[in-house]
Design goal:
Belongs to the binding-protein-dependent transport system permease family. One of its GO terms (cellular component) is plasma membrane. The chain crosses the membrane at residues 21-44, 131-154, 166-185, 191-209, 251-275, 287-309. It is a single chain. The chain is mainly α and 321 residues long. It contains 14 helices and three strands. The protein has a three-stranded antiparallel β-sheet with strand order 2-1-3. Helix 4 crosses helix 13 and helix 7 crosses helix 8. The longest helix is centred in the middle third of the chain and has 32 residues, at 121-152. The two termini are 22 Å apart.
Length: 321
């Protein structure tokens, strides 16, 4: 119990058991709240699902309507001595139950639905992963070296960072029309939006990480004769590598946030196209399933990268512990 009590103190430490319990609760509590809203009518069921329209002409079986409108329709039928409509309390169509979403999620990997991004979550998501991968790789190939140089060389920082500060305040979608005009309507402008949305932040974050390197290491290396490229590649980069790796994990999540916007540029494609098409026909269980898939893959990727960091930078973990 000491680990649990310490978790509620400012800057308290938690033991492994407490972390495990809190991790399980972090998943269960939202699911329980969602289940309560979905399966307990007295919690929140603002609509009625019509099972029998009775004598009301405009009602149909399977139709949803607000409770107040349903009560009004029932009253009108009773006044006219006609069969009253019948229905069951339900939630709006845009809030499917966890069971419906789970069924849709499983169906995405097991059913033989028609092929195409508008039908298949897996095909659509596979295309989206390619957009994220190439966008983040291109951004990193430019942003990581430039960020390290900005952090290590004041002259480069003075030349680059003012322009980067200007462009990082411009919304990435604002470049959409320009990207289509230059790169066409297919995947290239989508990748460009991911790059634009990530690159400028990446340069500044990595430059700041580079500046935080313990200056005593620089002084000691210079005393031993290291300078120039040798100092950069043998001292600076190894010294910032664990923090640089952590920054890249965070920035990868940043790139994911631009995915939906990027895939609306040019021809619609990927998971965005799937979500849009499913929402158009009110198949919101598929919409939620697609959102869950994005979250699972994003979180899973971050967890794998975290485990790799523990293996790759054991000295950092030991010094922090």
């Amino acid at each position: 119990m000491q680990g649990f009590s310490a978790s509620w103190r400012l800057y308290g430490r938690t033991d492994r058991t407490a972390r495990g319990v809190f991790g399980v609760l972090a998943v269960l509590l939202p699911l329980l709240a969602w289940s309560a809203v979905s399966y307990l009518p007295f919690v929140w069921h603002p609509q009625v699902l019509i099972t029998d329209p009775g004598g009301e002409d405009y009602l149909e079986s399977g139709m949803r309507m607000n409770r107040a409108d349903f009560s009004r329709a029932v009253g009108e039928m009773r006044t006219k001595n006609l069969p009253v409509p019948q229905g069951v309390a339900t939630n709006p169509v845009y809030l499917p139950s966890p069971g419906e979403v789970l069924t849709a999620f499983g169906r995405a990997f097991t059913s033989s639905a028609p092929t195409g991004a508008e039908h298949s979550i897996t095909q659509a998501f596979g295309h989206s992963i390619q957009i994220i991968f190439w966008g983040f790789v291109i951004s990193s190939l430019i942003g990581v070296p430039l960020g390290v140089l900005c952090g290590a060389l004041p002259a480069v920082a003075r030349l680059v960072e003012p322009s980067v500060d200007f462009f990082r305040y411009l919304p990435a979608p604002a470049f959409g029309a320009l990207a289509v005009a230059i790169l066409g309507i297919y995947d290239a402008p989508k990748i460009a939006i991911i790059v634009i949305g990530t690159l400028f932040q990446q340069i500044l974050v990595i430059a700041n990480t580079t500046r935080k390197l313990d200056f005593a290491l620089i002084e000691a290396s210079r005393t031993l004769g290291a300078k120039g490229l040798k100092l950069l590649f043998r001292v600076v980069i190894p010294g910032i590598l664990p923090d640089l790796y952590r920054d890249q994990r965070i920035l990868l999540g940043w790139a994911w946030t631009y995915l939906i916007v990027a895939e609306l540029i040019g021809t619609s494609s990927g998971i965005t196209w799937f979500i849009t098409q499913q929402a158009r026909y009110q198949h919101f269980d598929n919409v939620y399933a697609a959102m869950v898939l994005i979250g699972i893959v994003g979180l899973g990727t971050d967890m794998v990268l975290g485990l790799l960091a523990r293996r790759l930078f054991t000295w950092k973990r030991e010094s922090d512990g």
